[in-house]
């Protein structure tokens, strides 16, 4: 790799405010805000709106779409092609 052209890859805390969940990882993203982590060190913190702790798919609160109704509406509108 060429030196001096890549962004710094350092530890960052991503915090989900809605889910009350935070995790420490490495990233090129940075922030002016900091937080003291469980290990006693201070890291930049990036607040996110949604994570696996608050996303409906991961929490089991996802809505089920009515796909059968959509197919029937499509067939009423455009007919069934090729079916005889």
Automatic annotation (TrEMBL):
Swiss-Prot/TrEMBL keywords: Ribonucleoprotein, Ribosomal protein
Tagged with keyword Chaperone: no
Signal peptide coordinates: none
GO cellular component labels: ribosome
Origin: domain of life: Bacteria
Alphabetical list of PROSITE patterns matching this protein: RIBOSOMAL_L31
Assembly mode: Part of the 50S ribosomal subunit.
PANTHER family per UniProt: 50S RIBOSOMAL PROTEIN L31, CHLOROPLASTIC, LARGE RIBOSOMAL SUBUNIT PROTEIN BL31C
Protein family (similarity comment): Belongs to the bacterial ribosomal protein bL31 family. Type B subfamily.
Name the UniProt record assigns to this protein: Large ribosomal subunit protein bL31B
Species assigned in the record: Streptomyces albospinus
